């Protein structure tokens, strides 16, 4: 039975009509999980298709609440360097030289403002101020203050805008990471990469629109758990979920054909399975079946495209020198940064690299040195590499974590040994390329980097700004679910931070 036919077999099937693939896909997304009943259902389906065709006549992509992109994008693609565990702003981007003379003084209650503390420090008898053990210098024409821990990133400081006034709603890692990545502290919502896949679609049909790379651990303490819920498609079709590439064996599990199975035989097998799925789709009308067909097709194309993507033998020695020796070891952060550049070249819409270990409650100077050494050179190389290839102008690069760290020490305090607790009230991130104003600084914190004193920026504002740079109005990228027009930035107000846009 055809998707637009009633039980008498009247009418053509939408799937058989000479319509573009994205129109058929959108029609199926609009379908319910059961076939429309009788002629009233058929009429409703045809009305939806007619509306879709009218929309298509005005733009190259179907509408998701609005024509996308909503306006000319600054960036075509994005690379999100996500530091899970919350890097300390004191040892990276928020320079507070006056804290040196406040060493071991108690944090004034007027600064704390009655804030509820985590269980790690709530029982401490005092909250002693811990200045950073590391120095800072100014770099570039912009004069960004950058920690001595990040000399390679500092070398490209003129390319990025530093945001010092980020804040979030959660004080613990799991809800804060979910909020940053999906706009909600409750799991089950689509991640930012999934929203972009749904809204903007693919730029390369042979590779996933959204790719995730998890880096090998440089530090084996206080490791934040990562799971697919951070790159989930939530209530969107599964085809929009992030595809996680592995560092060992096949980059994607079961990517290679079994021994004795040729590519031609694999093609025939997929054609047979897809035929059965199409029959199931026509009989039951579940849009998830269409997603399954798309995933089989993508998997087949990836068998040819992914090996070429991950074959780094064509990279010249100058590139290995830029990214450092760890880039030759699959799964390292350096390797993943090089892979991100290769994916940007090949039109992957959204690449997210996760790097863990930044939860520095104790032994912070030693741990921050290890972590920054692992990410510094590759991060600087990625920015410089994108720029020399002419890709930085339309590739947005984002760096940051889920919240900040406290000015006071958790546990014991020495000048060269201290720890910092979670701090959601303020933290620092940066963005580069893709329409970002080079050298900009947005926001300001107080002398203790404890409270924001100028231009606060919620993580919802960050996500709204990322979407804006990619040509998307965050209020118009919606999907109706559970009776609500769902969106990445949720129901609370969010704003685009235009001060950091070129």
Order of secondary-structure elements: HHEHEEHEHHEEHHHHEHEEEEEEEEHEE
Gyration radius (Cα, Å) is: 25 Å
Quote the CATH topology of the largest domain.
Answer: Alkaline Phosphatase, subunit A
- The assigned structural class equals alpha/beta
What's the CATH first level of the largest domain?
Alpha Beta
Content of β-strand: 15-25%
Described by strand count, sense and barrel closure, the largest sheet is: 9 strands, mixed
Tell me how many strands there are.
17
Low-confidence stretches: 1-11, 32-66
Helix share, percent: 25-40%
Average pLDDT taken over every residue: 85
- Count of discrete domains: 2
Principal-axes geometry comes out as globular
Give structural notes.
The termini are far apart. The chain is α/β, with parallel strands linked by helices and 502 residues long. α1 packs across α2, α7 packs antiparallel against α8 and α10 runs parallel beside α11. The longest helix has 25 residues. The protein is globular. It has two domains: 63 residues, no CATH class; 373 residues, Alkaline Phosphatase, subunit A. It is built from twelve helices and 17 strands. A hairpin with a 6-residue loop joins β13 and β14. The strands form five sheets. Strands 1, 4, 5, 6, 7, 8, 11, 12 and 15 form a nine-stranded mixed beta sheet that branches.
Summarize the SSE layout with pairings.
Blueprint: H1 21-30, H2 38-56, E1 77-84, H3 109-112, E2 136-139, E3 144-147, H4 151-154, E4 160-167, H5 173-182, H6 192-200, E5 210-214, E6 243-245, H7 263-284, H8 287-310, H9 317-323, H10 333-345, E7 350-356, H11 364-388, E8 395-400, E9 404-409, E10 420-423, E11 427-432, E12 441-442, E13 444-445, E14 452-454, E15 457-458, H12 459-469, E16 479-481, E17 484-486
Parallel strand pairs: 1-7, 1-8, 4-12, 4-15, 5-6, 5-7
Antiparallel strand pairs: 2-3, 4-11, 8-11, 9-10, 13-14, 16-17
Helix pairs in contact: 1-2, 7-8, 10-11
């Amino acid at each position: 039975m055809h998707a637009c036919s009633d039980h008498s077999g009247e009418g053509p099937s939408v799937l058989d009509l000479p319509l573009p693939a994205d129109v058929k896909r959108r029609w199926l997304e609009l379908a319910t999980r059961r076939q429309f009943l009788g002629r009233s259902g058929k009429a409703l389906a045809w009305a939806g298709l007619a509306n879709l065709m009218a929309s298509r006549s005005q733009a190259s992509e179907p509408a998701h609440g609005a024509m996308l992109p909503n306006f000319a994008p600054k960036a075509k693609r994005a690379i999100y360097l996500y530091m899970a565990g919350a890097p300390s702003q004191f040892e990276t981007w928020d320079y507070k030289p006056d804290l040196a003379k406040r060493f071991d003084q108690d944090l004034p209650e007027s600064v704390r403002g009655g804030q509820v503390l985590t269980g790690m420090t709530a029982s401490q008898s005092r909250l002693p101020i811990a200045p950073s053990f590391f120095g800072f210098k100014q770099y570039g024409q912009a004069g960004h203050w950058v920690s001595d821990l990040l000399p390679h990133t500092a070398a490209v400081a003129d390319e990025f805008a530093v945001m010092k006034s980020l804040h979030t709603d959660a004080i613990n890692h799991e809800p804060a990471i979910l909020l940053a990545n999906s706009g909600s502290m409750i799991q089950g919502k689509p991640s930012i990469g999934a929203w972009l896949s749904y809204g903007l679609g693919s730029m390369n049909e042979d590779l996933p629109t959204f790719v995730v790379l998890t880096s090998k651990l440089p530090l084996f303490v206080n490791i934040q758990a990562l799971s697919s819920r951070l790159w989930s498609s939530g209530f969107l079709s599964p085809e929009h979920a992030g595809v996680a590439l592995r560092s060992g064996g096949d980059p994607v599990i079961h990517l290679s054909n079994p021994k004795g199975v040729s590519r031609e035989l694999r093609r025939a097998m997929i054609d047979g399975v897809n035929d059965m799925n199409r029959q199931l789709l026509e009989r039951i009308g579940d849009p998830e079946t269409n997603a399954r067909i798309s995933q089989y097709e993508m998997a087949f194309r990836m068998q040819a495209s992914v090996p070429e993507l991950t074959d780094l033998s064509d990279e010249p020695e100058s590139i290995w020198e830029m990214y450092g020796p760890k880039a030759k070891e699959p799964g390292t952060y350096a390797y993943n940064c090089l892979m991100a550049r290769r994916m940007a070249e090949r039109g992957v819409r959204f690449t997210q690299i996760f790097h863990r270990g930044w939860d520095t409650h104790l032994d912070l100077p030693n741990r921050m040195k290890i972590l920054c050494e692992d990410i510094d050179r590759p991060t600087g190389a990625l920015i410089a590499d994108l720029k020399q290839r002419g890709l930085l102008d339309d590739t947005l690069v984002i760096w940051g974590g889920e919240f900040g760290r406290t000015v006071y020490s958790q546990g014991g305090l020495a000048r060269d040994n201290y720890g910092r607790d979670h701090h959601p009230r303020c933290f620092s991130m940066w963005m580069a390329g893709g329409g970002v104003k080079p050298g900009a600084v947005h926001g300001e914190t107080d002398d203790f980097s404890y409270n924001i004193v100028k231009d606060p920026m919620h993580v919802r504002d960050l996500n709204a700004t990322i979407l804006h740079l990619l040509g998307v109005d965050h209020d118009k990228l919606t999907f109706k679910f559970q009776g609500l027009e769902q969106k990445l930035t949720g129901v609370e107000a969010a704003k685009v931070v235009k001060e950091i846009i070129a």
